[in-house]
Amino acid sequence: MNKTELFSQIRMKRSFLCIGLDTDILKIPGFLKDTGDPVFAFNKEIVDATHDLCVAYKPNLAFYESQGVAGWVSLEKTVRYIREKHPAIFLIADAKRGDIGNTSSLYARAFFEQMDFDAVTVAPYMGEDSVKPFLAYPGRWVILLSLTSNKGASDFQMEPMASGEPLFEKVLKTSLRWGDAGHMMYVAGATKAQELARIRRIIPSHFLLVPGIGAQGGSLREVAQYGMNAECGLLVNASRSILYASGDDGFAEAARNEALNLQVDMEELLLEAELL
Amino acid sequence: MNKTELFSQIRMKRSFLCIGLDTDILKIPGFLKDTGDPVFAFNKEIVDATHDLCVAYKPNLAFYESQGVAGWVSLEKTVRYIREKHPAIFLIADAKRGDIGNTSSLYARAFFEQMDFDAVTVAPYMGEDSVKPFLAYPGRWVILLSLTSNKGASDFQMEPMASGEPLFEKVLKTSLRWGDAGHMMYVAGATKAQELARIRRIIPSHFLLVPGIGAQGGSLREVAQYGMNAECGLLVNASRSILYASGDDGFAEAARNEALNLQVDMEELLLEAELL
């Protein structure tokens, strides 16, 4: 999916919501545990209940890997289900991968060939040759970590370089040479909305994947104020606040209500920005 | 496995070799492709042929993930086989993971509970709370990236911070507060042996996992000269040079010969350092 198509989906759905499929087998309703594949059964109900309200789903690989082979089966089924039922949904593997070139090539094969993801999140620490193999796939995306939403972001990302800029800005500027706004997005933590303005000055036209809305506490209005551009340029993620809105058999309806609340807020922000 | 036990294995085997199981289904001998699980069949032969010459195996997760569910099955079988046959071998998941705390907890569950690895490689970019969950498992290890062996290491790791030190030194110093030499090791790229001396000044007693011997071109003697400490303190990895020493049905014997060459060199270096 290219950038124009993504913006078109955002306008059509009046939403820039990404739903994080952080599906924890310990948290899903008990009655699903009698199905053969509870994680897939849960994801399927979430997707059925929310697909018209979001433009992207983002399975978090850790949750699937923690279940071993069974988890990988649930993941592949989830990806296939979304692809078949809702081919225009943008699918992100939240994997935070990154290794030497020949290894990153294999990760790219895993997410773009073995599975049919549109994008994968990549960690920048190992530099250009750890990222480039993911950019070799036309129509697929790298979503590079720049500023994350967790406390540990202050350990290195916010630390000043000799040039005066913090590391995350150095990551933004250096990685601009690796691929353009048609192939790269950036993770930009929403708990630091003021920082979004600085990020936007460096990368005015790139899409940002913004975690930290909901359970992590970011403000949607601030994110839009500082981060929105002429093509929206935002995918705002919520995971736990939607998935676990209710722990009983009404979980899918509760998830829809949470997603709907966000979609309504997003529609208002898109209208205010005159993008609809 | 604790540090004393690891050093004891090194003395017993007269080797500090780690064999990287970067098993690429496209590179393994054709005759194995008729077996039900060629990747496991290959790994089993490699392990049978080399287990007395190395102290650690390091499956590279990307190679397994690139095969989807089948790859994950091969990985779990490989780990189980090594654990059952050679319980004193140190098992490293080369996964380069790292995410917000609740997600890193799930990765830790994947590698330390779902599978029975001793250690996992972790990327530092997201800071303390992305690393800590891996340290919550007694007797398990974090191997944190500091200076890697690839070209892209110069993009950020070698870049100077405002304090004057390069980022990888900042990573070393900051992470010293997270866990001690009994729970953390560091990846230190062997293609820059001079840098090992600087790393050793900061972390004199930690084990270093050194990639880049063999296909990546590092010198074993230089690594020992600059990196060895009183408990050896080194795990030196070779992957492709051993696994693909021969592409035909003599591959296991050829792998053994390559591993033996390294073990003999390592024994000499251990003797020179008076550690045997």
Structure description:
The structure is a homodimer of 276-residue chains. In chain A, helix 2 runs parallel beside helix 4, helix 2 crosses helix 11 and helix 5 runs parallel beside helix 6. In chain A, 56% of the residues are buried. Chain A is α/β, with parallel strands linked by helices. Helix content of chain A is 44%, strand content 15%. In chain A, strands 1-2-3-4-5-6-7-8 form an eight-stranded parallel beta barrel, surrounded by six helices. The model of chain A has no long low-confidence stretch (mean pLDDT 95). Chain A has one domain: Aldolase class I (TIM Barrel, Alpha-Beta Barrel). Chain A contains eleven helices and eight strands. In chain A, strand 7, helix 9 and strand 8 form a beta-alpha-beta unit. Chains A and B meet through helix 3, helix 4, strand 3, helix 5 and helix 6 of A and helix 3, helix 4, strand 3, helix 5 and helix 6 of B.
Secondary-structure map with pairings?
The structure is a homodimer of 276-residue chains.
Chain A: H1 3-13, E1 17-21, H2 38-50, E2 56-59, H3 61-65, H4 68-85, E3 90-97, H5 101-114, E4 119-122, H6 128-135, E5 141-147, H7 167-175, E6 184-188, H8 193-202, E7 208-210, H9 220-227, E8 234-238, H10 240-243, H11 251-272
Parallel strand pairs in A: 1-2, 1-8, 2-3, 3-4, 4-5, 5-6, 6-7, 7-8
Task: Write a short abstract of this structure.
By secondary structure, chain A is α/β, with parallel strands linked by helices. Chain A has a single domain, classed as Aldolase class I (TIM Barrel, Alpha-Beta Barrel). Helices cover 44% and strands 15% of the residues of chain A.
